[in-house]
Amino acid sequence: MNRPSRIRIGRPLAWACLILAVLISLFPLYWMLRTAITPGRELAGDNAGLLPRHPTLLNFERVLGLTTREEARAAGGSGADLDFFRYLRNSILYTGLVTAVQTLLCAMAGYAFARLRFPGRDLLFGMFVAALMVPPIFTLLPNFVLVKELGWLDTVPGLVAPGLLMTPFAVFFLRQFFLGVPRDVEQAALIDGAGKGLIFWRVVLPMSRGPLLTLALTTAVWTWNDYLWPLLVAPGEETRVLTAALGIFLKQSPNTAPDWTGLMAGSVLSIIPVLLLVVFFGRRLVDSIQFSGMKG
Amino acid sequence: MLLRQGEPAAPPVAGPAHRLKAGTRGDGRLAAAFLAPALIGFGLFYLYPALRGAWYSMTDWNLLSRPRFVGLDNYARLLHDPLFWNALKVTAGYVVLNLGIQLLAGLGLAALLHRLTRSLVLRSLLVVPWLVPNVTTGLLWMWLLDADLGFVNHLLTGAGLPAQGFLTSPDLALPSVAVITSWSGTGYTALLLYAGMLLVPRHVYEAAALDGSGEIRTFFRVTLPLMRPILAFVLVVSLIDSFQLFDAVAVTTKGGPVNATRVIYHYIYEQAFTHFKMGYASALALSLVLVLGVLTFVQMRLLRASTSDLA
Predict the structure, then answer these.
(1) Mutate which of B5, B45, B157 to test chain A, going by most A C-beta atoms within 10 A?
(2) Which residues of A touch B270 (CB under 8 A)?
(3) Which of A205, A262, B106, B282 could disulfide-link to B190, CB 3.0 to 4.6 Å?
(4) A220 to chain B: nearest residue by CA?
């Protein structure tokens, strides 16, 4: 018990490691911003200091399409048309539409599986669970073909189609949640003569704000990050989302000397919503991840 | 079930699913209304494509002409396709590297958090890289690892070391990709493990401290064994997730140099959308389904075998 107290170097050292980890997490993002405000022509000679010698917003202006083609080329761009305003808007539309509609429809489906009685329920739910185990690439190829056959390439319907109505995961997640809700409240409303449909809208949904928000956040993050699907079905200028735009921008950029300052400016734009999410929903995000950990 | 990284685990179930009050009438019509959109979505974009995919895998088809039925030829071809085996080997190599880095670094980070601080801000900051879109992560690290102007090579040359072509050298490309994806996933993994550590009751630590057990010894003898279930969970989730690596490779190396980073997902993509071999790509995809099915089965056994000692 009474061991002589050693000089504690352990704790400061542990703090140093933790702070190093935070630095490793965040420094690359700082470097993204630092590169984005460096004049393209100067990057080769000015790629090391913590701040660029002549900070500029020109790179943001040219990826947002606010400069003329000549100005963009003079600043180190390839001269390809870029309109990150539009891509940003498309990403917001894609993410918002899929998240809102999918969450609501999956809540209805989850409730039906958890609380309603109808023939074939367990069989149907079994199929949804089985679909959880199928890697997305397997359905991605035929879905691409389907969207192509429908003539929906480069349209919003084609972009949102596979995720708009449901994902097996969202239905599964919400069914599990509804199963865990005590029945008392619903029973009381039933006795008062309310139908189960009304109970869902008036009682169950308002009670479930927490899990619905958790699920919506998760869906929003995935949809925002989604790359392969939008790149395949909606690469056109009108429907191009941010992630696809970044991929295409990279391809247009010369292989020998990529337009790093422009690419980093576009990258900064793609993570602004992410940072907003952390600022506004940091606690919920962290909690929902940790909740998975507790459950595991 | 197959969880992808980032999916919140479903909440626990309080009661049995089927406890229906005797005399409750069926809710057929309401159920039909509530389920209709989800069923349409499921039928059109999950069931139908799965059946079509299975059919394509038995055809020769370039997206333009009519699919030609070839039986099991695609599967026979796959068994003798050195690039398929290469893709499996590369994927396995990536999985080992990625899991190794993420689990070790994540565990260390979780232990630090657990012993030092409850700061929510710190935890939020650690999870930021996980929220960055994969494409952005890929671009950012391509720039950081750039052979001429990249920041990492700036550090290396500053320390008197030779600059490296991290993404262009056949030996370094795959480990570099693993480092990139680990950068984005480690904070997330650490948070999962940290949550598992919080479940170890305080009195266990007090007992260990009374026995004169030091910090490091307690971690290996007490914390780690009690975290077996969460470790198993994280292991299998990241395993299945790692098998599906695509975005980072598609942005940074495009499978190169000389197939050094041609993981299975990228190989399938390339067969389908560069070479327009839809039949063969579907056969490859279905094989991946089987591989992941086996992994999921093993996962379930593993999870069942790893019930906590705390229970």
Answers:
(1) B45
(2) none
(3) B106
(4) B131
Q: Are B274 and B262 in contact (CB under 8 A)?
A: no
Q: Which domains does chain B have, with CATH numbers?
A: 73-305 (1.10.3720.10)
Instruction: Please tell me the distance in Å from A180's CA to the nearest CA on chain B.
Output: 4
Specify the pLDDT at position B309.
55
**Would you call A168 and B126 a contact, using CB atoms and an 8 Å cutoff?**
no
Q: Which residue has the higher pLDDT, A169 or A75?
A: A169
In CATH, the number for domain A84-219 is 1.10.3720.10
- Position A93 scores a pLDDT of 95
- Nearest chain B alpha carbon to A280: B124
Q: Tell me the pLDDT tens digit for each residue of B102-150.
A: 999 999 999 999 989 888 999 999 999 999 999 999 999 999 999 888 9
Question: Does the pLDDT value for residue A2 go beyond 60?
Answer: no
Which residues of chain B does A232 touch, with a Cβ-Cβ cutoff of 8 Å? 273
Residues from chain A that touch B136, judged by Cβ atoms under 8 A, are 243, 246, 267, 270-271
A30 in contact with chain B, both atoms CB, cutoff 8 A:
no
Query: How many CB contacts within 8 angstroms connect chain A with chain B?
Result: 349
pLDDT confidence band for B237 (50 / 70 / 90) = confident
**B157 CA to chain A: closest CA distance, Å?**
12
**Is A270's pLDDT higher than 60?**
yes
Q: Give ∠ CA B43-B49-B55 in degrees, rounded to 5.
A: 130
Nearest Cα residue to B139 out of A102, A271, A294, A273: A271
State how far the Cα of A94 lies from the Cα of A162, in Å rounded to an integer: 12
ipTM of the complex: 0.90
- Spans of all domains in chain A: 8-82+253-296, 84-219
